[in-house]
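Reply to dn_fold:

You asked what the input looked like. This is it:
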Amino acid sequence: MNENQRSEVSGQRSVNQKLTHLQNENLVAFRARWVVLPLTFLCFGLAPMARAVGPDAEGAIAGSNNGEGVGVLVNRTTGNWNTGTGFEALNHLTGGNQNTATGFWALLSDTTGSYNTATGVLALFSNTTGFFNNATGAYSLANNTDGSQNTAVGYGALYRNTAHGNTATGFGQTSVGGMPVLINANHKLGTATSSKRFREDIKPIDKASEALFALKPVAFRYKRRLIRPVHHS
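and this is what came back:
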């Protein structure tokens, strides 16, 4: 082998060695990436989930307000002592005070209304400026906007009410006017005092009352009892 051939072989060996070195370095780097990537994903998997700030209320809110749920009391500016629990409860409230809303969209539209209590899905949903309303049950007082001093208990009770001072209990009970109900100092329930001087066209009801007078009340005892109190019917 002459000198030129020897030089060529030596150069080829040097090139092969460099290629082998580069291949080894690439293999090490490649393996390192596949080790780091799973560790990275693992770290992300073990990291706690980021908590949404703003729309998701949890706990105390400025102005002695309390909220729990997405979109609760997010528009409040000056309102104080309000409590909202449920998706977007009291969502539009700005300056109202001492409202309590529990349920999906309860008191959603209320802006400056105060002293209202809504319990149930869409209870007092449309109320904006009404005061002293109490709605218990899904959709109760749902269409009330500015009516005040209403009480509705039951699913859909006073659903279409927009007036003031109404009370309804039971499924779908409605009232858009009627006579006020009063409670006196002795806690007795009643209406305004009635007197002949406030009436006109007074006349007997004649035959319409005969069915009442035809009733014959009796006293009786139930059988097979050791103690037999007297009953009336």
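The first strand starts at residue 56 and ends at 61.
Hope that clears it up.
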